[in-house]
Structure of non-specific serine/threonine protein kinase:
Amino acid sequence: MANKGSILMERYELGRLLGQGTFAKVYYARNIRTGQGVAIKVIDKEKVLRVGLMNQIKREISVMRLVRHPNIVHLYEVMATKTKIYFAMEYAKGGELFNKVAKGKLKEDVARKYFQQLINAVDFCHSRGVYHRDLKPENLLLDENENLKISDFGLSALVESKHQDGLLHTTCGTPAYVAPEVISRKGYDGAKADIWSCGVVLFVLLAGYLPFQDSNLMEMYRKIGKAEFKCPSWFPPEARRLLPRMLDPNPSTRITLAKIRGSSWFKRGISIPSNSTIVDETSTDLRNTKDKQEMAVAAAAAWIPKLNAFDIISLYSKFDLSKLFEEPCLKKEAKFTSWKPASAIISKLEDIAKRLKLKVSKRDEGLLRFEDMKEGKKGTLCIDVEIFEVVEAFHLVEVKKSNGDTLEYQQILNEGLRPGLQDIVWTWQDDQQPQQSQDEQPNNQLQQQQRLDNQQQLPEQQQQQQQLKGSPVH
């Protein structure tokens, strides 16, 4: 393994081969510093350049930076040499869900658990403007605790990929799991197509075989187009009612993720709020009682994700590795830091949203979504605000446009959010000096420690960045 690149070898000790495809191999590896087990995806740069798949690799990097969820494989870092690209990812010890299904149908409770985790993760992806487009048991992995992890975002699409008609037009996915509107090549809604694929996955989990099967590909496409399938006798009645609504050949009448999550079969066995949604937007109790509202804010704050060192580096512009892989574009996001508790940040954001007449429609693991009440130039303006805990009592907040017109977003950001947040913001990422109020000055000892840490860490970070800049991905 000595030829695998000095950058990689400095950080990881490579082990056995886990799998391989045409353009990449995946190895088990161990982080030398922490001892953590990871999966290293090694991509042959020359091969992907030769067949024109580099944009797919760039998209996968961009997407995996956007979607951080307990049921999605986590991308720790990306490294590159002149000939290779390396993804250091979360290691899913349990392997592919496909291996379980290949042995036969699953018990109802087991199938429901995997389905719940799949829907929660897909819902989170859609809230970030990401559509997977290749959901199947081979791309669903299991960790050591039998929790599902979505992987392989190589075929995923972003909101920005939509044409002027608001639809996606690239035909992709695996034939048996692909939605009929994708096959027709007339344009499709990425969210609706993912829901169809989730329906096929659910059928496979409960049946042990595919709903649409035929040795003739065109005949299989015909069955998919007309949704010709039959549920086996052992399917529970509630699942029998849910599946035809997911496998509805008409995307405009196909069931939504919200209604799937509201179905009686899906909700069975859930005794606590799901990872994906801490506070349900349809809950009326939380709207009527101030105490319950405060409890809801506190509950949401408890789910704030913590950042590791690579997360912190990648979120700051000076160390943003995405510039190696992404084209520059109009500013659609802003970041600020605060010494206020997460609950105070959430309360402040909700107050500002109310004042600006923005609807707070979701709260997912530190993620708030604001929606404009009126239609804008490019549809409804949606702004995602995600809160991360850097260290105890110190938070980084990312404000990002997920839909709508960028100029409208900039106006709300600069004329509404920035002025309204000034009493809780320590510093905006692009500002030169921190905006400290009298009651939130960090103590001198902490500041001195931060300066010492920065002095120790900067040379190593600059070296990492320089190594990557010396061998950019083309």
Confidence is low (pLDDT under 50) at residues 158-171, 272-290, 313-328, 436-474. The radius of gyration is 23 Å. Residues 162 and 357 are 27 Å apart (CA to CA). The longest strand covers residues 379-391.
